Structures are given as C-alpha cells and as structure tokens.
Amino acid sequence: MIKYRLLPHYLAAIISLWLMGFTQTSAGELPLFDAHVHYNEDIWQAIPTDDAIKRLKKQGIRRAIVSSTPANGAIKLFKQDSGFVIPFLRPYRTPDDRRDWYKNPDILKYVRSQLKSFDYRGLGEFHLFGSQVNTPVMKGILALARKKNLILLAHSDHETIDALLTAAPNLTVIWAHGGFDVDVNIVAKKLKQNRNLYIELSFREGITEQGVLTPSWRELFLTSPSRFLVGTDTYTGQRWLALPELADHYQGWLKQLPGNIAEAIAYKNGERIAAQKPVRNE
User: What are 218-268's pLDDT values in tens digits?
Assistant: First the structure.
C-alpha cells in the first residue's frame, strides 16, 4: 500500500507518464499548414464559418491560406478566426470569371477595389496559361500585387510559371499542385533557378506509390525541404467532406521523412511565408 505522505508524488508520477504517452501519440501526427483552402459560396449554407474552421482544425491544421469565389467567403472565415485564416483574393466574382479574368478590364477594377477595402495577404488561386500572363489586365494586376507585396498562388503550366516569375521577380509564387504531372526533374530545376518559388502539393502525382514515397520525390524533399507546402484544395463540398482522408494522406508520407524535413513541409514553410509583411491599407 502506498503511504499517504507519498501519494501526491505517486499521483504526479502517474500523471507525468500519462502525459508522456499522450504527447508521444500526438507527436505522431504533425500539425499542418494548409496552403490551399477554398470557401466558395456554394458551400456556405451547408458548412457555416464556425463549422468550416472546426473541420480544418480537427485534422490538425493550425493555419490556412483561404480564398473564395466570391471574395467574401475568405473574409467571412477570417472574421471567424483571424489568427487561423490567411486571406487571399481570388480574382473571380463568379465561377464564370475563370474563363477570361486575365483579359477582362472589369476584373482589374474588381481587384483594385478589393485590395483597397481589405488587407489581403495574397492573390489567388488563379488559373493562368501561356500568353495570358502578358495581357494589359494581367500586367495591371501584377503591378497591384507588387505594390502590396502580395503572395501569388498560381494554377499554371510550367512555362507560364516561368513567365510569372519573370513578370513578378520579387514576389513569392506558390505553384498550385506543382504542375500536377510535370516531370519531377523539371520541378527540381525550377526550384534551383527561382528562390521565390514554392510548390503546393494537392493533386500532385507521383509522390507516392502504394503509400510509399517514390525515390525521385523523396530525394527532392531531402534536397529542397524549405520549398514545399501541403494543401487540401477544398474547391467542392466533396473535398470538404474528404478532409480526414486528405490529412491522413499527407501524414502517411510525411512520417517517412526525417523529422526536421517533415516538419518543414508540414507547417514550418507555410509559417515562414505567412510571416511576410504585406503593404497594408492606411
């Protein structure tokens, strides 16, 4: 029997062991910085702002870059939890704008107005391909982005990413989906050539085979660990419902990397990008 005078010490030891076990279990799941969340109008009613934040946090997501169509969705989530949400401006008033936003003068007016009314941290996700980067509207939007020191989140082919980096040489560019199926060697080359380029990994093909990291991607993660970001790309209601599976997918292959590399990709790279200071409205 434990003597009464020793009981506090005994209980303290038991609690300490329990906490150690809890910490070890929690440590198996890395916190995540989600670099690609959409909170679009079509899911506002089904998933209110408080529920959206809870769903993300439940998967271990500690902060998230959020954009929306229309822009008010990102603002709504930001107002719900300003410490969690990093608001980006998507240059689409409606889904139809995706087709010609880069050449529509009204979109330039819209972006200018939005940037004056709210302190966004970035621009995107936007879809841009080929010569679209050279339109007068796009040049005007990039001028606004440079003035505000905004981060760009671009869904583009690898040639257009080059053009975008040339047009905005001092801005951070996040390549959404890392080109989907672009050869890993091309991705590696671009990272060596462009210090401001980061790769967001939602829908990126070739990273794993049957849950195991492929040699080429493992090598790239090991050589350029500071340049990758995870993302869920919740562009539909189904993607919101799939958040547990998406988070599990990342956790599965992150565990196969050295701890410091896994932490960088899981959340530290995102936190570093989020620390960049935009030019705020007066």
Answer: 999 999 999 999 999 999 999 999 999 999 999 999 999 999 999 999 999
pTM score: 0.89
Buried residues in 23-56 as b, exposed as e (16+ CB within 10 A): eeeeeebbebbbbbbbbbeebeeebebeebbebb
Between CA 274 and CA 277 the distance in angstroms is 8
Task: Measure the CA–CA gap between 106 and 149, rounded to whole angstroms.
Answer: 22
| Per-residue tokens: 257 | 């990397």
d(CA 153, CA 253): 24
What is the 8-class DSSP label of residue 92? -
Half-sphere exposure of 84 (CA within 13 A, CB side): 23
Under DSSP, is residue 8 helix (H, G, I), strand (E, B) or coil? helix
Other CB atoms within 10 A of residue 95 CB: 12
Can you tell me the distance from the alpha carbon of 38 to that of 236, in angstroms, rounded to the nearest whole number? Answer: 8
**Contact call for residues 256 and 213 (beta carbons, < 8 A):** yes
